[in-house]
Structures are given as structure tokens and as C-alpha cells.
């Protein structure tokens, strides 16, 4: 499948943290191209064994997305919600949303006209708890169709921009899922000297919870986590960001294995794969933090896809950065059986 088409299919599926089933179904359908050994654990994470063997290499990306959760139902079709994950409340007002009830219900986040705002209100960003979502339903219809606990996703399309860039909700981290699937495609005709497993994990946005259980069950010897990281925009500090179109971002951190990071860098140079370095002074705030300390410890590396406008409905990436990430993963797997312990 063409990479942009795959990205659209993954990004447009629903998968708010704790309710990742629709996204998991899409991921499982794609994984069936490479293996029949696919399982979904009690938390909802997907694990696929591509090849048994030692050392066992794990390729990991999270499939959940930020969103909201219904907390209470009001009168005349209005409801209250809370954030699921790191929702940027600056952008919530006037957003179109979909309530993921048994039968999805569309709504909009209510916006008080600026003419009616007090002087104090006009200077503040409302808290999520202060906002209402308008479904257009009657009170009775709302009670029949929607229940507290239903997840809410942003209603945002997939847009093809100029110069190979795309924009969508939930590219954090469906872009990582796409990169792992693309790596499997690059490896499908290779004779591997190692075992290979894949996890598409749940609840990363709530503290990397799915990676804790999935990596424990899989018990890898080596792992590569794929996530997204900040791509530079004029309003962001350049030294804290990667460059959109600059290639995959190789993580360097005290919590990541130095040998794996060095090997990724050497492979990128050898194979002429575009890359950039991302140096962090502590935790990576990705699944790598959980996988590294799984069981007796796992040698883990991190690859990140540069992304603009993180945790918004307009997350933007360059497709070639997904490709470079996939290529580097594939090269690492091909050499994994030959590396020193």
C-alpha cells in the first residue's frame, strides 16, 4: 500500500486512549500481510510475532490518540467532558467533534460570542471543565444515545499539503505505526538472523501504560520505539526542535542504550538515510522509557518523526520522514543478529 494512503487509513481511524479498538482493527488488518501470529492483550495493545528467534527485536509504536471523555449530560443536548491525554485547551473552542457512542454522535464545542465575554474572560483560556459540547439533540435523545465514559475524538480530515506533506489528527503516533508497517514491507523478502516482533500499544498518552505490559509479555532483547517529536516552526525554539523533511530523529538520552543509538547513527551514514539527532537530558516521554526497564532491562533505541502542531487536529508531517524512519529500522533489524550482546 502506498505510504500516504496507509497514513490516511491509520490516522482517520478512531483510537482515543482506553478505547483503541477501531485503530487496532486497522493495524491488525495491515499486520496480516506479514504474519498470522497476532494477538490483542487485556489492555488492548496489539502484538505480532513476525519471526521467532534470538535475539528478539521489538519494533514499537503507540496507536492511541488524545481526545476527551464524556463526564456528564446536561439539558437540551449539551454535555460536559474531560481531557484524555495532553489536550491543548487553547484550541478546543469551536472544534467539531465525534462522540464515540455505540452509534457515533457529532457535536461542536460551544463558543460564547466575544461580544458577551467579560473583560476577565477575554484574557483567559477556558478550562476543559468549563466548556460545553452541543450535540443538537434533545435532552431525551442525548440520554438515549450518549453515556458518561464515552470517548470523544476530533473531527478532522486528512489533507495532502504541498511538497509531500500531510496534515491530520492523530499522526501522533499513527505516523509511527505506519513507519513500522513500512519497515515490515521492506523486510518481507529478507532472511533475518534474528527474531522480530511488533507492538502497537495502547494508552501511551496516559503514561506509556500499554508499553509496560506489552513489552513484558514480548520479552525482547532489543527494541526500537518509534514516536513523533517537535518539528521547528517560526514560533518555537530551534534548538529544541527537529526539521520537517530533515529525516528521522535518532534519540540520544541517558535512558536509551548508547550502543543502539550509535549503531543507528552509523547505519544512517552508511546507507545514506537522512537523519538528525535529538539529544535529551533525561526521560524521553515515550514508550522507550517503559520498555527499557521491562523485566531485567531491554537495550532500547528511539526514532522520532518530526511533526508540527503536536496534540492538535492539524498535526503535520513530511511523508519522506516516515520513509527514512522505516528504512533505518529495517537496516537495524537486518544487522541485529550480527551485533555484539
Shape: globular
CATH topology of the largest domain: Aminopeptidase
**Which percent band covers the strand fraction?**
25-35%
Q: State the helicity in percent bands.
A: 25-40%
Radius of gyration: 21 Å
Element-by-element helix/strand order: HHEEEEEEEEHEEEHEHEEHEHEEH
CATH superfamily of the largest domain: Zn peptidases
Task: Tally the helices.
Answer: 8
Major β-sheet annotation = 8 strands, mixed
Determine the N-to-C terminus distance: 35 Å
Q: What class would the helix/strand composition place it in?
A: alpha+beta
**Highest-level CATH class of the largest domain:** Alpha Beta
Description of the molecule:
The chain is of the alpha+beta class and 341 residues long. It folds into two domains: 3-65 and 169-336, Zn peptidases (Aminopeptidase, 3-Layer(aba) Sandwich), CATH 3.40.630; 67-154, Peptidase M42, domain 2 (Elongation Factor Tu (Ef-tu), domain 3). The protein is built from eight helices and 17 strands. The chain has an eight-stranded mixed sheet, with helices on both faces. A six-stranded antiparallel beta barrel has the order 4-5-8-7-6-9. Helix 1 (3-11) packs across helix 4 and helix 4 packs across helix 8. The longest helix has 18 residues, at 319-336. It is globular and about 65 Å long. The model has no long low-confidence stretch (mean pLDDT 95).
